[in-house]
Amino acid sequence: MTERNVVSWTAIVVGYANVGDMDNATRMFVQMPERNLTSWNAMIGGLVGDMASARALFEKSPERDIIAWGALISGYAQNGQPNEAVKIFLEMESMNVKPDEYIMVSLMSVCAQVGSLDFAKWVDCYLCQSSIDKGQTHVIAALIDMNAKCGNMDRAKKLFEEMPKRDLISYCSMIQGLSIHGCAEEAVGLFNRMLNERLIPDEAAFTVILAACSRGGLVKEGSHYFETMKNKYSIVPSPDHYACMVDLLSRSGQLKAAFELLNSMPVEPHASAWGALLGACKLYGEVELGEVVARRLFELEPKNSGSYVLLSSIYAAAEQWQDFAIVRDKMRERV
């Protein structure tokens, strides 16, 4: 190329950013003799895995459009920083920049993370008063997910039932919302309705329904879905699926079955699954099994004081004071 202009420079920066090569994108961005809005936006959007850098670049940008604001809000939402996302949204609002549907979807995702009913109602009301097309599938799906997870189940159900065509995502949002808010049996009924509508559940859908069964103590239903997932849908259980089943069995007092399931796993179980079983050992006073489980946790997370505390509590409940003292000493040494 005999002459490079801002368009060609920007094309290279955007190309690198689109494939996630932010080192080269940054190198080219720094070398640019002049920068336009597109190059700034490409860099901000590409850096959302590192929100401190993305925010710093956003603050330096001489001009900000809806794409830049949206990239920052979406980035905070994806990185589990909902409070920062809300701050950016309110700052954007104060500058009379009107959000598009993509920013509102990100904001609803943020609200679902926070779980605030009042915030959900405010976002819902704001969206209804805006000019954004509320009939778009991704907007409706986000509305259902937000309202369900924040406990506004009547609103979520209304939106869900009014959908011209319900999909796996909308069903899972409703099932998860019902599960979170103590309606496990209703969640199971909705999952069965989904199957009757001939929708094919995926790994995520089975994680959602197994978690619902765990929260509700529905051992029979959870066991059925776990077997159905393997035998009918040929889905190999993931560590998350096993963790749900271990939690379900542990909560219902079937500690030996939970232990056997953990040992049958073809992959290393999550520490959280062992932790759920250890917590159940404390609840049901299972000293011998608690010792075995605790030793496994000490290997996986030697600096996690929670496992030591649980085992010492098991010993205390059984009035095994010498063992209690030994565990406490080990905790002080390692943690």
From TrEMBL:
List keywords of the entry alphabetically. Repeat
| Gene3D superfamilies found in the cross-reference section | Tetratricopeptide repeat domain
What GO biological process terms are annotated to this protein in UniProt? RNA modification
Coiled-coil region(s): none
Q: Which InterPro entries match?
A: E_motif, PPR_At4g14850-like_plant, PPR_rpt, TPR-like_helical_dom_sf
PPR repeat boundaries?
Answer: 5-39, 65-99, 167-201
Q: Which PROSITE patterns match?
A: PPR
Determine if Repeat is one of this entry's keywords: yes
Sorted alphabetically, which Pfam families does this protein's record hold?
E_motif, PPR, PPR_2
Do the record's keywords include Repeat?
yes
GO MF terms here are:
RNA binding
Q: Which family does it belong to?
A: Belongs to the PPR family. PCMP-E subfamily.
User: What name has this protein been given in UniProt?
Assistant: Pentacotripeptide-repeat region of PRORP domain-containing protein
Species in which this protein is naturally found:
Hevea brasiliensis (Para rubber tree)
